[in-house]
Design brief:
Elements: E1 5-10, H1 16-31, E2 36-41, H2 53-61, H3 76-80, E3 83-86, H4 89-99, E4 109-112, H5 134-154, E5 159-163, H6 168-175, H7 182-188, H8 204-208, E6 233-237, H9 239-248
Parallel strand pairs: 1-2, 1-3, 3-4
Antiparallel strand pairs: 5-6
Helix pairs in contact: 1-5, 2-5
Length: 249
């Protein structure tokens, strides 16, 4: 799988670019893509500061967080990153002028995020600033997320859907462990259960195997004796399935 380095750039690096950084990082985790994502600003207004409080609030609303500290964009970023993504047209034009003589062998591509909108058409992303209201940040979040999805699809990468094993069995095992009739469970060679019939307790060897039954853990080898839990599975998606998977995120 191709490894890419991506940098989002806005004017002050306190609103839109750190939001895009976190959104893209979250999409990377969900699609099992291993890209390096960062953000920076063209100006020194917020260097060393945390992102704007409204930006952080919108991220928290969606279960996300940012550990970013604002920094200024430098010429060396053209040499390090594969893609420099501008958050608005003013930044895009300045990056093109600045990068005309600083991009090494045109290895780094300068992109405009809003050009990868829904259905492949350009879209509008609010040019956020600390003076804007919360609704502007909320609107920008959804549009940035949509553009980030299209940016991923435009690279024609292999999207991998990783399904984690369920933790419900572990929770059920520990929830009623003190109430297990140990003697009856051992003598009958059956899965342990608590007095509460709604709680099903897994045996230790079954829990360690991810809940999958084998001939050693199930002497009767019966498929109906216990529900099996799926282990972590990686599944590569085709372009069409990957698009549907991204759209559902």
């Amino acid at each position: 799988m191709t490894f890419k380095k991506l940098l989002f750039v806005c004017m002050g690096n306190s609103c839109s670019s750190p939001m895009a950084e976190v959104i893209m990082q979250n999409l990377m985790v969900k699609t099992s893509l291993y890209w390096e994502v960062d953000s920076a600003g063209l100006r020194t207004w917020n260097t060393g500061r945390r992102p704007n409080k409204r930006c952080l609030q919108i991220l928290r609303e969606h279960g996300l967080r940012s550990d970013h500290f604002c920094r200024q964009f430098t010429v060396s970023d053209f040499l390090y990153f594969d893609y420099v993504v501008a958050m608005d047209e003013a930044v895009y034009k300045e990056l093109l002028l600045w990068g005309a003589e600083n991009r090494a062998d045109k290895h780094c591509q300068v992109l405009l995020l809003s050009s990868t909108g829904k259905n492949g058409l350009p879209t509008y992303i609010d040019n956020l600033s600390p003076t804007h209201k919360l609704r502007n940040f909320r609107s920008a979040y959804y549009r940035i997320k949509e553009c980030c999805k299209k940016l991923i699809l435009s690279q024609k990468v292999e999207i991998v859907k990783y399904e984690l094993p369920s933790t419900e069995d572990d929770d059920l095992y520990y929830s009623g462990k003190d109430n297990v009739p140990q003697d009856s469970a051992k003598t009958n060679n059956m899965p342990e259960t608590s007095h509460d019939s709604s709680v099903f307790l897994l045996q230790t060897d079954i829990r360690s195997s991810g809940g999958l039954m084998s001939s050693s853990t199930d002497p009767s080898n019966s498929k109906t004796s216990m529900p099996s839990c799926s282990q972590g599975v990686q599944r590569k998606l085709c372009q069409k399935c990957g698009q549907k998977f991204l759209a559902a995120l």
